[in-house]
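This part of the workshop introduces the protein records we will be handling. Each record describes a single protein and holds just a pair of labelled lines. Instead of coordinates, the fold is spelled out as a row of discrete tokens. To make this concrete, we reproduce a full record directly below:
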Amino acid sequence: MSDLGSEASLDDLRSLVESGLSGLLTEQEPEDLYAPIRYVLEGGGKRIRPILVLLSAQAFGADPRRALPAALAVEVFHNFTLVHDDIMDHASTRRGRPTVHTRWDEATAILAGDLMMGESYRLLGQLDAVDTREVLAVFARMVQRLCEGQALDKAFESRPAVTVDAYRDMIYRKTGALIECALELGGIIGGADEAQRAALREAGYHAGQAFQIQDDLLDLTADSAGWGKTIGGDLMEAKKTFLLLSAVERSGADSDDARFFGSVVAGKALGERQIDEARDRMDRLGVLSEARDTVVAETELALASLRSLPLSGARSILETLILQLAGRSV
């Protein structure tokens, strides 16, 4: 690995995270507790959130190794939420593999997730030369927001009407709060002042909006081979997304479009053969272009917030990563 100074590359940082994860929770007994955790942490992923922690710390001149415990805490916590989300969503696969509750059972998945959450707090306690109380306050605020977002997401399933604004508030809590936390933790470790920390939170908010709305868009428009999921899967589950809710708001009262999309909001899932029709209707209503424009606008707002950070190679990489997240096609 190359020198981990302020110019460490994304590959360097990803390798640092992977190495750190491989050294966590290596205990063997009881096997039914630790095997699922190893299974989850070895499951891959882009490691976006921990890399955001490291890049944010680097942007203020900190060696990323100082920020590694916080980066690992964020990644372990993120994976814990996926384990429990999969139970709540009755999901059978995650990243092309059986989910923990499918491969083992629900009780095992709950317990493994609980330990992973505890491990994230233990890792935060390993940080040196920072105000631990401040770090824990930022992390706890994120946990609260994320749980609120998950609760709202579940509530939306049975709610007859959800506005686009309400949806965007929910995705801030469920998705954006962890990105916001990752950036602010890195800033704290690097010595950011309060104004800079506020800028990092603002960048995290907008990056989270762009990330989730792009995800909603890709569910309907991605290349099926690269996406790795069923195209139109959200509509086939009658899931309320930015696209669906925007389509409802753009449809005229008592119009055919209003009836078509209103039935999905009411819980009537679309069949696979109706996905092309739904995409065509959304395109005609301007929903797809609105989503693309929103992703671009939110990304620009995130980048504008990052410009208050000191100019450095790390900030440039951070800006590039935010652009890649918003512009991804799979």
User: Anything to note?
Assistant: The first helix runs from residue 10 to 22.
